[in-house]
Amino acid sequence: MAKRTARNTGVLLLMVVCISGTQAAAQHQDAITPGQVWNDVTGNPINAHGGCVLFYQGLYYWYGEHKIEGLSETTHADGGVHCYASQDLVNWHDMGMMIRLDRPENEDLTHECNSDRPKVVYNATTRDFVLFFKLYLRGMKSQAGFVAVATSASPTGPFVYRHKFLGGNSPEGTGDFAMFKDDDGSLYHLAVRKPDKAFVIGKMRDDYLLPEGEYTVCEGVTPKTEAPALIKRGDEYLMLASGSSGWKPNAARAFSAKSLQGPWTGYGNPVSGANPNNGLGADLTFGGQSNFILGVEDREDAYIAMFDVNKPEHPFESGYIWLPIFFKGSEMHISWQDSWDLRIFNK
Fold first, then answer.
1. How far is 94 from 85, CA to CA, in rounded Å?
2. Cis peptide before 195 (omega within 30 of 0)
3. Which fold has domain 2-346?
4. Dihedrals φ, ψ of 186, to 5°?
C-alpha cells in the first residue's frame, strides 16, 4: 500500500506541475489577499470552507466543505468535502470532491444533512488518510452532533464513509472540534461538548477511527469555546478559538498549556487591526472565525491562521482570511495584512 500511495502522490505532483505550466499567466497569483475572493488556477472561486491543510510528499492539500451555489445554510447548502492542491500555498488546483452528501434519504450522508469543519489526518501506521467532519443527520437539526469518519489510501480520495460517533461522553455529542496529532502519532479529539458547552478532550484509537476511552474537561478553557485550532510549539500547546455566537462573528480567544488536558491559560484576543473589505476589526475577528493553524514546511516557526468569513444566507460566497502568526513568548499575535506572501516569515 505504501508504494501505491507514493506512486499516486507522484502522479498528482506531476499533474499539478503540468497544469501549472499550461495555465494562463493571468491566473497565477503571487500573494495571499485576505478577505478577497480567492480563485483557483482556472479562475473559479475556491470552494473549501471551514477546513484544514495537510502537507504530504511535497504538496499541500486544502480540504473544506463544498457549498452548493444558490442554497443557504437553512436550505442545506452542504454538498460534501472538496480538495485543492498547491505547491506554494497561493495557487491552488482543483482536485475534485472527496466525498459527497448525495446518498438515499435513509443513509447518513444524504442531502439535507448538515456537515461542517472537515479535517484530514494521515495515519502513518495504517497508511490511511482519515477524514473527520461534524455531522447533523437529516431531519434532526442540531439535536445531536456526530463526528463522521471516512478513509482513503490517497490524499485525493475517493474517501469511503466508515461510520459516525458521538464524542464527549454525551448522548448529544459535540460541536466544533479539532483533531490534533501529537509528536508520538497519538491523535486527540478536542471539542465543545453538547449541551453544557464544556471544552473536552478524548484520545482516539491507534487506527484513529474511534475514541479510545473517556473524555475529560480541559481545565482552564473558557466554557462555550468553539472553532478550536491547535499547534505544538516546542514543549507548549497553543490554541486559537472563538466564542459562541452562531454564524455571527465574535472576538477570538487564545490559550496555552504544557499538556493538552490542561491547565490551559487564556490570554485574550490575539488579533489586531481591521479588515478594510468589511470594516470589521479585532473585536469581531475581522468578520471571521478560526478553523485551522497551518504550519509552513521548511520554514522555522512559520504558521498561518486560517479563518472563514461565514455568510449563512449565501454560503457559497463565504470567504477566507489567512494571516501569518507571530509569537511573543507563549502568546500568538495575528495582525491584519492587506496582502502578503511567505517572505513575511523571513523578517
1. 7
2. yes
3. Tachylectin-2; Chain A (2.115.10)
4. -70, 140
* Number of neighbouring beta carbons within 10 Å of residue 78: 24
Which amino acid belongs to residue 109? L
Which pLDDT tens digit goes with each residue over 254-294? 999 999 999 999 999 999 999 999 999 999 999 999 999 99
CB 157 within 8 A of CB 80: no
pLDDT tens figures, 132-183: 999 999 988 788 999 999 999 999 999 999 999 999 999 999 999 999 999 9
The residue behind cell 470552507 is 49
Give 3's pLDDT tier (boundaries 50, 70, 90): very low
As a whole number of angstroms, the distance between CA 284 and CA 275 comes to 10
Note the residue count of the chain: 347
H-run or E-run covering 118: strand 114-123
C-alpha cell at 76: 442545506
Q: Position of cell 512559520?
A: 302
Q: Measured between alpha carbons, how far is 243 from 267 in angstroms, rounded to an integer?
A: 14
Instruction: Determine the Cα–Cα distance for residues 61 and 154; give it in Å rounded to an integer.
Output: 11
Query: Is residue 239 classed exposed, middle or buried when 0-12, 13-18 and 19+ CB atoms within 10 A define those classes?
Result: buried
Question: What is the per-residue pLDDT for 50?
Answer: 97
Mapping DSSP to helix (H, G, I), strand (E, B) and coil, where does residue 325 land?
Answer: strand
Return the HEC string of 151-198.
EECCCCCCCEEEEEECCCCCCCEEEEEEEEECCCCCEEEEEEECCCCC
Structural domain boundaries in the chain: 2-346
Determine the residue type at 268. G
Phi, psi values for residue 58, rounded to 5°: 90, -5
